[in-house]
Automatic annotation (TrEMBL):
Highest taxon, organism lineage: Eukaryota
Pfam families: HEAT_2
Comp. bias regions, Polar residues: 1-10
Region listing for Disordered, in residue ranges: 1-22
Transmembrane segments: none
InterPro entries, A to Z: ARM-like, ARM-type_fold
Protein's UniProt name: HEAT repeat domain-containing protein
Amino acid sequence: MKILKQSIQKSDSKMDASPTKGNIDNITAKKFSNYHSESHPFIIKAEQLKKSLENVKSTEFYGIENLSPKSKAVKCLEHLKSFSKDVKFTALHHLYNIAIDKVTDSVIEIILEELLRFLDKWEELDDEFLEYMLEIIGTIGLHPINIEKIPLMILMIIHDETSSHINLHQAAFSCIFHLGFSGVESLIKLANKEFPYFQAWVLEKLVVTNLIQKTIIVPALAQDALNGSGQIRNMAALAIGRLGTEVSKAINDLLILLKDEFWKVRSAACISIASAGPSVANIAIPVLLKILKEGSINRATVAETIVRLGVQGEKIMIDILNKEPLSNIIFRTSIIKALGKANVNNNNIDYVIETLYKLSIDRT
């Protein structure tokens, strides 16, 4: 039995992708597969920055490595006024490196005060310059000076589908997101804007962001999930599912969405319920069993959701499997696959393994 349990654990990664584990649509998944790197100009444009440094390291930046952090910061901030892109971008790169090092608060304040002065005239600056600046500000993170500028940075995010400044919008979003409670709260309010394209854009970002202030965003997402277009409801339901056990706070809203007119919304709600775990089993399983019987949502998805709600769900699905006619191969297969996702740490796992083992040797 122990060997079989270990085998299941080892083979779990080789199995088909689970339909209930944060399974956002393929286009979104591909587009935001590496959200942080995608919005990080110092990573994306590393080669360009290297060339800029090579062009100016023996002139404007000669001997800079010998300066103290404060002197280095002051020198780089002066170079931001240069007409040369190579000089400006190299200065920003040095400032970024200073920001990620452990420097004193006074040095950080010197950097922030000057960068935020530039930010006041953002409409006059080119996008690349702003993207680098926003990354530095976001890297520094929560600071009283930063918080005051959130309304200004919000203006850099708002756009429609005709915008040609997507990288800038994304950089501003990433920056605000790293400014703590106030930043996240501002982004949540943005998701309530009455523009379907923009709502979907913001929600897509929230779907793939792992550091969301969970207790703030759940109520806002639940509200979006019950209102707006089908696309908005779909993205909001998926975003809720990324919040782990915090999903339980929105369970009543998700149960309503299981009856939504659009199949994508129904599936998204089901997937998100799976993330809530055993805490919602008593309220969710009866509804899910009815849906499993009706077939209004893919049965494999519903079956796995029930299994992922803990021991109670596992036992119910085994009971259904034992009673289901052998001729119903498709349904039985869905349940068996779902049981393969059972939590090996549950005290019920031996029972699950025994059931699956018996099925594997049953030749009837």
